What does this fold into?
Amino acid sequence: MGPEKVNHLRLGVDKQMFCPTRADRAELEAQLGIAPGQILVLCVGRLDVGKNIHTLMEGVAHLRAEGVPLHLITAGVGPAADDLRQRLGAAVTVAGFVPPEALAKLYASVDFTAMTSEVEIHGMVGLEALASGCPVLVSAESGVAPLFRGVRGMREVAGGLAGWIGALREVSHDERARAQMRRAAIGYRPRLASWEEVLTEDLFAVWQMAARSRPPAELAA
It folds into this structure.
């Protein structure tokens, strides 16, 4: 078609909904029955093999055995829910479907989000997490990582269980690094498009240009 007929369509995010000010760690711990002092890692999406949830599960189990107080929270449904409960016991909260407002509080209140899936093309999880000021670990094998390369609030993780164990260990032990990633995510918020900006800049502006380029008789028809 030629570059003059191709435009970039961004994914938008509701930055009023997904916002760092929604953080309330104490309320989250009380609501979910999580003991203070745990390092909370969030996974959002379907709980199945396709999303690589078992890699995250085994990574958390490995670090728990090392004495790292990791606690996994999952927001989503799927066939691996029982596997998570059986493998991690009290170290996992399988929250099931989480409505947007509660999900926004999760993003803003946990220590970081883990995206282990290697089949993502883009998706909303990375956008929502960054908009919430939440550090993100993302699989380098997915299509998400190249879209945010250079964004210090998001860190790429090499594929495989060993890679995820190493990344989870490093981030869990380094509170300062998590704080730096959180500040970087918050600093990146202005560069994320709202849905209104997507409509007006990526869609409506193109529709107007297309309408102006068509003959009046064709428009009337």
